[in-house]
Amino acid sequence: MTKTKKITLTTVIIIACAITALFIVLLCLPKKRAQSFTVAFYDLTGKQETAILEALQKASQDAKISSVSLSNEEALLKALPKKTDIVFTRMGKNADSLCEGKFKNYSFPSADLSNYISSMRGKAVTDSNRNIIQLPILLDSYEIDINTKLLKTVKIEEPTTWKDLEEFAKLIKEAFVSIPITFAGKDSDSFLTLLGALTESYNGSESVLKAYKIIQDSIEQNEDTSQTIKKLCESPEAPMYAATHILSRWLREGLITREVFNFTKEDLEGFMTTKQTGIVFMTLTEHREQDIDSTTRALYETLPGANKQKSPFFPAFKTLSGRALTAPVICAVAVSKNSAALSATEALTQNIYQEAMSRNTGLAPLSANAKTPDRQSDDARFWVAASSVPLTPLPDAVFTTQKEKQLWAELFKEYILKL
Fold this sequence. Notes:
Residues 28-33 have low confidence and may be disordered. The protein has a 6-stranded mixed sheet with strand order 2-1-3-10-5-4, with helices on both faces. The protein has a 4-stranded mixed sheet with strand order 7-8-6-9, with helices on both faces. It is built from 19 helices and 10 strands. By secondary structure, it is an alpha/beta fold. It has helices at residues 3-28, 46-60, 76-79, 93-100, 118-123, 148-153, 162-172, 188-203, 205-220, 225-233, 241-252, 265-273, 284-289, 294-299, 339-347, 351-361, 375-385, 394-398, 402-418, and strands spanning 36-42, 64-70, 86-90, 125-126, 132-139, 142-147, 179-182, 277-283, 300-303, 329-334. The protein is 48% helix and 13% strand.
């Protein structure tokens, strides 16, 4: 064998041995474990949970994500499992309870809200170090839906005041529909949200916050609920006097029926499908969850419409200053320092995930530049952008359990029916 062939063979053997050694080393190295984390959902719809999970999965790439849907029969703090990293719920007392307790030192240190509309940057809850501890990710809204065909029939332009709405309701009463104005009165969240929105439209946001404090103090001090409702409603100067007396007047005038206080969300679907109502109060979430055909959905348009209205608010009963929209906001709360969970959740503020979640839920994105799926979600964002920081709805702001909400809702209804 020549010298050249010997060198070549030696080289091949050395290379082969090196490759084999490298392969053995790689096999012996500890494998990188896929990151994992657990999220909990509290009092959100199935569609909302799925949309958030899908966005998290894309944002986290190869992370293994476990999820659990919690019962709203218990307060969030009590229902929360121990091994949870992120909680998604609506902003309000339940979310606050996490941030005020043993999880107060957890935050989203790298969250970037620079692309958010300013009023929603202001809605984010921060700690003493200005770290975000409640991260808003999606915007709901409280709306008035109008039967546009009936508007044309009675030759009324789009209503802009309560006087316009009531005139419309009176014109369509009996001649066209059996229920001029309706809402899901049996659902405590829907009914209490309506009460809060009516309070704001008559007295402004300060009265709403005053009512919230009276109710919170009553619960904390274990006061008689019936007496607290009288305190809220009996005197003309009381914060919820107007809201309860407006509903009582509508009842006397036949614009609503006594049965409305027992109507379910499914009842609303039936009345809208059969065109038996002219005005419907509901949240954007409730609107999205309805099982109605596209023709019916198109027939009932939301007031106000951003292309026609000059004000983002519920129509006012009188000239008011210090107004604010009533708008539920879905947020994330960190309950661990799991870096994968924090990173993926912080990414949800980016346009790509804002658009995906808005498209899959029908709710409004908080990013100013994110695309929206339709006019309703675009209007919700538009009006919040044109106003101050939105109000948390009454049921989310002061209650932590369904039992509490149901108790207060029933006593409010009893009070109204006795007026």
